[in-house]
Amino acid sequence: MTRKLHILLLLSMAAALPQLSGCVGAVAVGAGAGALMVSDRRPSETYLSDQGIEIRAANRIDERFGDKAHINVTSYNRAVLLTGEVPDAATKAEVEKITAAVPDVKAISNELEIAGISSLSSRSNDTYVTSKVKGRFLDANKFSVNAVKVVTENGVVYLLGIVSQREADAAVEVARTTGGVRKVVRLFEIVSEAQAKRLDDPANKPTQSGAPAAATPPPTPAKQ
């Protein structure tokens, strides 16, 4: 989709927000989402594409498996992370196949576990762990917090983002030493320090879809 169409889509979404219930809250959410997109290192087109990938993949997986599996889909720079629990290897493979068929997906890290579906308390704890990691990122103040996406599944923390090697190492160290974290998995795209700084300035972000030219492709998950 062209940049112009994306802008029109954003404007349409903004115009529709006041028609939703709780107009003030809806407008606040829209403004917050816009601010996050501006501060993100991904181009706006890619940011929106990632949201679309997550929705499409999740819907297709749910239609196929329903409550037989617990699967989370996270897309960053069109590289998809699959986490959760599935009953067997065949289901794990089929989920990956379904995801790969979603438009714009360029890579998949299939971290699904063959296990019973996690409990509500386990998922609540994962949410808590994610919030603790993000809070410690803020306290550490060693990199742009918005550059690192945190996903937690069964105590395993997955870190995604377009970052420098220094930022990646700092994020891993903070996450690794956070209470409740069993393991850390890196899923970063590495760029130079200079490029990371340029990407933090919205005026310098790429306008074309995809990762910055100097970014490395999504690596094989590295567990800490």
Automatic annotation (TrEMBL):
BON domain mapped to chain residues: 49-116, 125-192
Domain of life: Bacteria
Matching Pfam families: BON (PF04972)
Signal sequence bounds: 1-21
Ranges annotated as biased composition (Pro residues): 215-224
Keywords: Signal
Spans annotated as Disordered: 198-224
Full protein name: Osmotically-inducible protein OsmY
Source organism per UniProt: Sulfurisoma sediminicola
